[in-house]
Amino acid sequence: MKVAVAGCCHGALDKMYETLELLQRRHNVRPDLLLCCGDFQAVRNEADLRCMAVPAKYRHMQTFYRYYSGEKKAPVLTVFIGGNHEASNHLQELPYGGWVAPNIYYLGYAGVVRFRGVRIGGISGIFKSHDYRKGHFECPPYNQQTIRSAYHVRNIEVFKLKQLKRPIDIFMSHDWPRSIYHYGNKKQLLKMKSFFRQEVESNTLGSPAASELLQHLKPTYWFSAHLHVKFAAFMQHEANSKDELPKATKFLALDKCLPHRDFLQIIDVEHDPNAGDSLEYDAEWIAILKATNSLVNVTQSSWNMPENNGLHAKWDYSVTEEAMKEVLEELNHDLKIPCNFTLTAACYDPSKPQKNMEPIHTINPQTTEFCAQFGLTDINDRIQQAKEESSGRGECEEEEEEEMDSTGSAEEPSEYNTDNSGLSSFNPDEIMLDEEGGDEDLSTCSVDPSPDHPPEFSTSFSDIRVMPDSMAVSSDDAMDSNNEELEKSGGSRQGEEKSSTERSLKRIGGDENGNSGVKKIKRRNQAIYAAEDEDK
Fold this sequence. Notes:
single chain, alpha/beta, disordered C terminus
């Protein structure tokens, strides 16, 4: 079957699906499945915008809300993972995965599903060492710390995935596995992104947790995004035993969803021709969730996963064939994921903007049903209980907790020596923020440009390059494919130019003594949200 893989979507669903439709018209190729490697931005309303970790001036509604409301429906089954620019409050409703809109499925913090016999896994978020060993404690309304930590990968998700024994066909992560750049055209990568050199040469670029999973799972394909550059690699794995057949992983990082970018790739994947067209649960993964349920942690306390070090009575949580059979029996041998999407928040109405809408902590019926069916802990329900217990404490304890929150996450010892999931060196694609400024006021959000008044970069993408084994899509001939709606797009450039100027001043500004005005580099990618493509 044909699988389309996209990089950072950034809420531009209309553009992504229009590209697929163009692909079909020009080349008679219709993908059976679309995978998106994070920064999907399932933003339903203004409250969701306030839960997205980007400066306020980059919070735009984009087009997901149209699919959430039912005004539009995804033309192809879409499966995605979370990145580091998401409506975290929305995705948090579905820690074990679920439908964010009809035909659009989120894999959860970590997950494995099946489609036409193809086994697809993924892990959401990016790696950050000081949050890695904590539980999923965050919930809206977020503060300046938790709005970031909410999308940081946790060790429990990696631990669950490492219990998998059966082969994985496709795996997705938002940030790259560390060291993967040594298995591709590193020279070309550094030519395109010279500011990667320091991290590449010191082998600190990317996620060590993802690298650990790559070594363990050895999937046929691994797809990532995050760094906004297209890069391919081929990794030959060592066999664990003489009886094991050699395995190799084809790695592909996708570019961001902007004009003049190869942000989409089509691959042919072997599948089961007798399998149905429905998205299905994976029996081994469900059994692992059941086996590891006792390890669920919703506190800020750092802790290590069980390991064979003499300190734990049990450290192997992989599951038996019998456990998987029990899952099948619970489901009456019907693994089809129910189409039980439910609206859990008001949908954005362009005619009635609500800029002061407050985010709330919501327990999604999909998660409630899933947990009840398999006997799992509803993480959000547990968080809610913890909040209620905390609210019953004395004022002194509350003040102490608030003080702890204001200081942010303390640096904890980590099994990894660095946490450069993004970049620590100067990156012209990133936003520079003052130490005292941080991200802009979380109470501010913008709904313009809306899909009804899109920015200029929302012209369609069209140039489709057919390759021997796959098909890539970019946008070099965008004018050929504009439909009537898109021809109306393209607003004023004045705001864009002003924003670009402000960014330049922040990068090159210094004080009267010649010191750099840049105090801190935050891992926030500016080119994602700019209306123009700044890369040369």
